[in-house]
């Protein structure tokens, strides 16, 4: 039983005239009659009676009329829903992101996306960068905002603006009075660093910066995420690098200083091919616009 045959039945039921119904449906009368016969066979009952005086609905036809109209309406709704989903206007977006990403323009982009596309349900998951890769690889999320380079070559990426690193030091620290700090100034300082397992490339870049300055960093504690680093600095546990977004959020008892030689945190959006889904493409456009403005 197909919607076209049901539509044919409804047109005959409304006009009670095979000729007019066939004309409105752009069908020949024999083709329309064949459609009705096929529908009646599928239903298992005669729906329309035709005689010299015209066409009338049988009891089965009258019972079939309202559900038939509803099925056409539901079919049209389904088509419209599918078309909206294909354009990224309806559906679901499962987004995974890192803590660093949450301190960029990402939250504002999500808020605007939800406002602009209310028919799209957005599921948010904050995890570290390797976990974002894992979730993408397993199909648990549709789109991720994370830190390249990626371990899984099959993931596709779109580069986003990198996040500069700033040095977080306690108020009253000797470096708090400086407007800019060099790696050589960090000799002997108690350093808080993220575990290498979370971001090996950035970890190695930071270590290289220390060594190029002739400094062997004195690591007193591994800490992640960067918000924890800021909290530990406030508690006097040491000093450490945080992203500019975290620094901009401010924290009592902590000041942030530029270290010109410090590497930036690379940022990218990633997805599993052949995606991203239409909702993901719309979100990437919006996110790119927000990060460009910021």
From TrEMBL:
InterPro entries referenced in this protein's UniProt entry, alphabetically: LysR_HTH_N (IPR000847), LysR_subst-bd (IPR005119), WH-like_DNA-bd_sf (IPR036388), WH_DNA-bd_sf (IPR036390)
Swiss-Prot/TrEMBL keywords: Activator, DNA-binding, Transcription, Transcription regulation
Domain HTH lysR-type: 1-58
Family: Belongs to the LysR transcriptional regulatory family.
Name of the protein: LysR substrate-binding domain-containing protein
């Amino acid at each position: 039983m197909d919607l076209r045959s049901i539509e044919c039945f409804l047109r005959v039921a409304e006009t009670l005239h095979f000729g007019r119904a066939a004309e409105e449906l752009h069908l020949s009368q024999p083709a329309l009659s064949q459609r009705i016969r096929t529908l009646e066979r599928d239903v298992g009952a005669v729906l329309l009676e035709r005689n010299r005086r015209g066409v009338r609905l049988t009891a089965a036809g009258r019972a079939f009329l309202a559900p038939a109209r509803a099925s056409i309406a539901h079919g049209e709704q389904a088509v419209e829903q599918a078309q909206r989903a294909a354009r990224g206007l309806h559906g679901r977006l499962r987004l995974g992101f890192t803590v660093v990403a949450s301190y960029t323009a990402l939250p504002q982009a999500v808020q605007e996306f939800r406002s602009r596309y209310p028919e799209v349900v957005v599921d948010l998951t904050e995890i570290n960068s390797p976990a974002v890769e894992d979730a993408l690889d397993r199909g648990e999320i549709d789109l991720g905002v994370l830190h390249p380079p990626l371990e899984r070559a099959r993931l596709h990426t779109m580069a986003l603006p990198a996040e500069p690193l700033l040095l977080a030091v306690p108020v009253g620290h000797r470096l708090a009075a400086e407007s800019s700090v060099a790696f050589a100034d960090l000799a002997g300082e108690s350093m808080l660093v993220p575990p290498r397992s979370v971001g090996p490339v950035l970890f190695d870049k930071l270590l290289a910066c220390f060594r190029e300055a002739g400094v062997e960093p004195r690591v007193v504690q591994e800490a992640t995420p960067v918000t924890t680093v800021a909290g530990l600095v406030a508690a006097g546990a040491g000093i450490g690098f945080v992203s500019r977004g975290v620094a901009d959020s401010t924290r009592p008892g902590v000041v942030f200083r530029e270290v010109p030689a410090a590497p930036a945190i690379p940022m990218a959006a990633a997805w599993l091919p052949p995606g991203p889904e239409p909702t993901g493409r719309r979100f990437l456009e919006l996110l790119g616009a927000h990060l460009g403005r910021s």
